[in-house]
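User: I've been trying to design a sequence by hand for this structure and keep getting stuck. Would you show me what you'd pick, starting by listing the structure so we're on the same page?

Assistant: Good idea, let's start from the same input. This is the structure you sent:
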């Protein structure tokens, strides 16, 4: 069984537990899809790709996770602040997904852009994680 759902849950729990992110940066919520009309800013678990690289003895996986941050009128600066905090919370985090061991979690890239034909700004962060069966 893939560790992806449990890794996702551990990541979201870590983000929601971070007061700086949720309170001081006023992140409305973390969703698994873009939500029309949701209060801004918010974070979306945009993509979660998993590749198995197991041996006969254990189940090992590589995960590429893309988070998206959406902001309105506070724009680029707000998105950059939230991405900075996401990095502090998740990069090399010691998360404990159920039934798996997180070997590593690293930020691979970030990007900030204005969403075409809207007042929104979107930042994306790609992370790479490795898990092994517990």
């Amino acid at each position: 069984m893939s560790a992806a759902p449990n890794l996702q849950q551990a990541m979201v729990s870590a983000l929601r537990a971070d007061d700086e992110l949720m309170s001081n940066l006023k992140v409305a919520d973390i969703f698994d899809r873009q939500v029309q009309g949701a209060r801004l800013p918010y974070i979306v678990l945009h993509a979660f790709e998993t590749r198995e690289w197991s041996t006969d003895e254990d189940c090992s996986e590589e995960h590429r996770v893309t988070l998206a941050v959406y902001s309105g009128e506070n724009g680029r600066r707000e998105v950059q602040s939230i991405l900075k905090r996401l990095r502090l919370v998740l990069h090399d985090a010691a998360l404990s997904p159920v039934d798996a061991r997180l070997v590593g979690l690293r930020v691979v890239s970030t990007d900030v852009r204005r969403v075409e034909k809207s007042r929104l700004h979107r930042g994306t962060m790609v992370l790479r994680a490795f898990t092994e069966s517990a």
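That's my pick for every position. To get oriented when you compare it with your attempt: The longest strand covers residues 100-114. Helices lie at 4-16, 19-24, 75-90.
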